[in-house]
Design goal:
94 residues; mainly alpha; two-stranded antiparallel sheet; elongated
Length: 94
């Protein structure tokens, strides 16, 4: 587990992680809003077969779930990088 000893470094890393989390949230929100919009305004389109006999609703839904997992992996990788960089800069400053 990464622990920053100075409050300033901890705050900077927390801000970076928060900004990234909000950005990824809005990326996912746009994708999810597309699904909801199709369901509200053109629900017949969701019954269209698009992939190996699966309709668009199922394909899009599974895609959203997989996309959420991918975004979580991306978030974790970047947060780890932010923490490692803060740890390196702390070690170099000593």
């Amino acid at each position: 587990m990464h622990v920053n000893s100075t409050t300033e470094e901890k705050e900077i890393v927390t801000q970076q992680k928060s900004k990234l989390g909000v950005r990824l949230f809005f990326v996912y929100l746009i994708c999810y809003a597309g699904f909801v919009t199709i369901g509200v305004f053109n629900y017949e389109l969701l019954s269209t077969t698009v992939f190996y006999g699966l309709n668009l609703a199922v394909t899009y839904g599974i895609g959203l779930i997989v996309f959420a997992v991918i975004l979580g992996i991306i978030y974790n990788a970047y947060c780890t990088r932010y923490e490692d960089e803060a740890e390196k800069s702390e070690g170099g400053a000593k």
